[in-house]
Write a structure and sequence with these properties.
It is a single chain. The protein has helices spanning 21-36, 51-57, 60-82, 136-148, 198-203, 249-256, 261-295, 302-322, 327-332, 338-366, 372-385, 390-394, 397-417, 428-438; strands spanning 2-8, 12-19, 93-98, 105-112, 116-118, 126-132, 152-156, 165-174, 184-189, 211-217, 231-245, 297-299, 420-426. The chain is of the alpha+beta class. The chain folds into 3 domains: 2-113, Alpha-Beta Plaits, CATH 3.30.70.1050; 152-245, Chitinase A, domain 3, CATH 3.10.50.40; 263-438, Trigger factor, domain 2 (Orthogonal Bundle). Strands 7, 8, 9, 10 and 11 form a 5-stranded antiparallel β-sheet that branches. It has a 4-stranded antiparallel β-sheet with strand order 1-2-4-3.
Length: 439
């Protein structure tokens, strides 16, 4: 076996492997003999027929696949050992170039090596720690939002006003098209925003039984894609106008199972504080993550990223399949096409890998470890969580993952301790914006 080596960029080595024709021929003969045991050839016991007859009886691609698996199993590790390389983080990329009887087998391997991490200066990173702040106005707004969940609608015999809900039938006819669009039946809430829309302007001041026709220009960002940006003749029939009735304090407190408004306010305040604290913590961690990634440089083989992204995406697809969903449907929840989501997933995987490598390098340089007490605590918690004995937990993969998580947390705490930290208030609107960005 001959092995030639070429060093590529980004911590990758290419190996060109050539296996002697004699060894290839021997592998083919062994494969024919082995597979021939399961083929009936008249006049011969299983596995005893001449090679010539076995070649006629067995499919060539079937035999070739067996030879390929056998030779790769015998030679791949030996080739990497001969070249003194060891794959890191992912299996090598394999390219079969030639496999025929009577000829040398040729294949290449691209082997990912251990990434190189240049930490740069990680003391004094400029980061932001966000402090959750819930105001009395936030509490009031949340209470009123919850009150609106119990809104009743009462039919009224008057003209529609701001805040009313109007039940209408709309027949749109797009300018220049021969036939009207399908009839739409809608409940239109006449909010101030809706009143700026052509349909909202038409409905304000109407009452049950009214029929109106107008030619209007729909906005470019209209939620109805068929009418968006079009000049449309609308025929609108009003079937009813309803007034929104909010529950009074007594009814509302009963619905919320609270004795007093003071009790409800305190409960809402605590809920908002807990929710906002989670958002603030996530924003703080994002600030540190960005600073760490910007400060360091990592030279990594793309094979590692592609392999990890492929494996984790396959696991996600299997999880979705068991739940009755497709990857395309899941991507739509992110407002992405399937192709866009796959690229987003690859980029996120790359970021996760780089971040983990950098934290590990900092941990090793700073000598950050877990004490024996911390390790024993992790063992007890893993044993309890996964219903194991402590002896089983001490040997489990779950413990290794838990220890790695705790070491990462300890490393991050070190970085916060030596960082240049700016504190910033984090309010309800910030949390909503962050939630939108995460989605």
């Amino acid at each position: 076996m001959q092995v030639t080596t070429e060093t590529l960029e980004h911590q990758t080595v290419a190996l060109q492997v050539e296996i002697e024709p004699e060894r290839v021929n021997q592998a083919f003969e062994r494969a024919y003999r082995r597979l021939g045991r399961y083929v009936e050839i008249p006049g011969f016991r299983p596995g005893k027929a001449p090679i010539g007859l076995l070649r006629q009886a067995l499919r060539e691609d079937y035999v070739r696949q067996h030879v390929l698996e056998q030779l790769l199993e015998e030679t791949m590790n030996s080739a990497m050992s001969q070249a003194q390389v060891e794959p890191y983080g992912a299996p090598p990329e394999l390219d079969i170039q030639q496999l025929e009887e009577g000829k040398p087998m040729l294949y290449s391997l691209k082997v990912p090596l251990e990434p190189k991490v240049d930490l740069g200066e990680y003391h004094g990173l400029k980061v932001t720690r966000y402090k959750p702040v819930v105001t009395e106005e936030d509490v009031t707004n949340e209470i009123e939002s919850r009150r609106r969940q119990f809104t009743r609608y009462e039919r009224v015999e008057r003209e529609a006003q701001t805040g009313d809900v109007v039940f209408v039938t709309v027949v749109p006819h797009i300018e220049g098209e021969p036939h009207p669009q399908p009839t739409r039946r809608n409940l239109i809430h006449l909010t101030e925003e809706m009143q700026a829309h052509p349909l909202g302007k038409m409905l304000l001041g109407t009452k049950a039984g009214d029929v109106k026709e107008e030619t209007v220009q729909f906005p470019e960002n209209d939620p109805d894609p068929e009418l968006r940006g079009k000049t449309v003749k609308l025929q609108v029939t009003v079937h009813g106008v309803s007034e929104m009735k909010l529950p009074d304090d007594e009814e509302f407190l009963k619905q919320m199972q609270a004795e007093t408004m003071e009790e409800l306010r305190e409960r809402v305040r605590q809920a908002l504080q807990e929710e906002l604290a989670r958002y603030a913590d996530s924003a703080s961690r994002s600030s540190m993550r960005s600073a760490v990634l910007q400060a360091a440089k990592v030279d990594i083989s793309p094979i590692i990223i592609v392999s990890r992204a492929r494996d984790t995406l396959a696991a996600l697809q299997e999880q979705l399949r068991r739940g009755g969903y497709t990857l395309e449907e899941y991507a739509q929840s992110y407002n992405m096409s399937e192709a866009e989501f796959v690229e987003y997933w690859r980029q996120r995987t790359a970021s996760d890998i780089l971040y983990g490598l950098i934290l590990r390098a900092i941990r090793e340089r700073e000598g950050i470890t877990l004490s024996e007490e911390e390790r024993q605590q992790a063992i007890r918690e893993v044993a309890e969580q996964y219903n194991m004995t402590e002896e089983e937990a001490a040997q489990s993969e779950e413990l290794e993952e838990e220890l790695e998580t705790r070491l990462a947390q300890k490393t991050l705490q070190f970085l916060w301790d030596v960082a240049d930290v700016t504190e910033e208030e984090f309010r309800i609107q910030s949390g909503r914006e962050q939630s939108d960005n995460e989605e």
